[in-house]
Each structure stands twice: as structure tokens, then as C-alpha cells.
Specification:
Elements: H1 3-10, H2 17-29, H3 41-52, E1 56-60, H4 66-73, E2 80-85, H5 91-101, E3 107-111, H6 114-123, E4 128-133, H7 140-150, E5 151-160, H8 176-190, E6 194-199, E7 205-210
Parallel strand pairs: 1-2, 1-4, 2-3, 4-5
Antiparallel strand pairs: 5-7, 6-7
Helix pairs in contact: 2-5, 3-4, 6-7
């Protein structure tokens, strides 16, 4: 861990026994522990939920549950998170982490492909006020379109890893993940139905807010 990351973690308040336990278990029990969330992103997600005060949150890609726990900490009573994880090999760890957090009643885990789960939620008439995207980078544009259809006016979409270790601005990088992130960043910036900002925070965070219909760009 470099000195800057250590300083950021030492000056954020999102950690604690449960998340420290989850960090250790993720390192011991998973093949790609680097995918785990950390500080200050965890504290940021908690504060963001507290500011927006959503009734329903949708998460695409929870890995071992770190980000879901952080967001659940900020929820008001009666609110909930639906989190989608495509792989099932970490389900025992995820559920144990949720139980240890004391927030398992606020979090619903869906095991499956978000490209199938989210459209099903649309057919069921589900609505959300906040969505957090941290899944397959190649599918970010599809996630965005599907999630936006479920989002109430005034709702927010937050996407992580939108700088992708700095690969997005180096045109020599043409792998599918980098191209997927580039396409996502262009899509959001060209969408007249949202306000958006891309922040150089962590590995890059995109935040956009869906306008009410009267705010959208008109012809003429």
C-alpha cells in the first residue's frame, strides 16, 4: 500500500471490524482480491446515500459485498438495496458479511447476469433512485441504458472505474474493457437527459443525475 492510500484510509471513517474482516477474508478466499472496494470509496458511498436518501438502490457487481454494506449503512429505515453479482462462488462469504454487518434485512442479493436481471426488474415495474455500476466494463453502456429506464427523475447513476487505471486516455489501449469504459464516458456526456461529472477519485467515478422530463433538451 502506498503512502497516499494509507493516508486516505487513515482519514476516512468507513472502516470498522466488519469491513476489516471482509478485507481479510477476501484476500484469503478469492482469486482477485484487488476487485474489493476500499477507502475512501466506501465512506463516499455511505455519505452519498445519506445525501440522496433513496428508497431503493440498485447495485451491479458487488464482488464480496463491501460496497453494498457501505451503501446499506447510509439507508434510512425501510429502504433497501438490490445487488446483482453474476458469480455464485462467493455467495457464502457475501451472505456472512451481510449478516455480520447487521444490515442483511436491507440488502437483497441476486445471483445472475445483470443483463437479464435488470430487464426483469423493469418488467416487474421496479423503480430506483440510485444505481451503482461496478460490473463487467464491456457492458457498461448496456447497464446504463437498462438502469436509466428504472431510474426515477432526479435519480442518480454512479459508475466506478471510469478511468480504468489511466488506460482510457491512451489510444494505444484497445482492449475490450478499456473500449467499453470509453464508450460509457462518451454515452453519458452526450446524453441530454442527464447532468454528469467525471471525478478523478479512486479509479475514476462518474456521477449523473436524470432530469425531470421538462428539463430535457427541446428541439427548435
Amino acid at each position: 500500500m502506498d503512502a497516499l492510500q494509507r493516508y486516505l484510509e487513515d482519514h476516512s471513517k468507513g472502516t470498522g471490524p466488519v469491513l476489516e474482516w471482509l478485507e481479510r477474508e477476501t484476500r484469503y478466499r478469492t482469486v482477485h482480491p484487488r476487485m474489493l472496494g476500499n477507502e475512501p470509496m466506501g465512506s463516499f458511498l455511505t455519505l452519498l446515500v445519506q445525501m440522496i436518501r433513496p428508497r431503493n438502490v440498485l447495485e451491479i457487481g458487488t464482488f464480496t459485498g463491501y460496497s453494498a454494506i457501505c451503501m446499506a449503512r447510509g439507508l434510512e429505515p425501510g429502504a433497501r438495496i438490490d445487488t446483482i453479482e453474476i458469480f455464485d462462488e462467493h455467495n457464502d462469504l457475501i451472505r456472512e458479511a451481510f449478516r455480520r454487518s447487521g444490515l442483511e434485512e436491507r440488502i437483497v442479493l441476486h445471483t445472475g447476469d445483470a443483463l437479464q436481471v435488470v430487464p426483469q426488474m423493469h418488467r416487474e415495474g421496479r423503480r430506483f433512485q440510485l444505481a451503482y455500476i461496478d460490473g463487467n466494463k464491456r457492458e457498461y453502456c448496456t447497464y446504463y441504458r437498462d438502469v436509466k429506464a428504472l431510474l426515477d427523475p432526479g435519480g442518480y447513476i454512479v459508475a466506478d472505474n471510469v478511468l480504468w487505471d489511466g488506460k482510457v486516455w491512451d489510444q494505444r489501449n484497445r482492449d475490450a474493457q478499456t473500449e467499453g469504459i470509453r464508450a460509457y464516458n462518451r454515452l453519458v456526456m452526450q446524453d441530454d437527459e442527464v447532468s454528469a461529472v467525471l471525478l478523478p477519485f479512486g479509479d475514476g467515478v462518474s456521477i449523473c443525475r436524470k432530469h425531470a422530463p421538462s428539463v430535457c433538451k427541446t428541439s427548435g
